[in-house]
Amino acid sequence: MGLVIIFALVTILAAYGGFSALKNKNFLGAFWGVASFLTFGWFTVMTIVHSGFPTGTH
Fold first, then answer.
1. C-beta atoms surrounding 14 within 10 Å
2. How many domains does the chain divide into?
């Protein structure tokens, strides 16, 4: 459950970092930001598919 939340937060931060680097014309930073976004986004989706969406109750 916590893993999905951590992966989702890292995915959001990677998207923001990649967009910010692209806006500043930092192409190496944009590459790594987008690569991190794709990688952690894939981990997020696959963790949700495999483990299910975290619920508020246990």
1. 20
2. 1
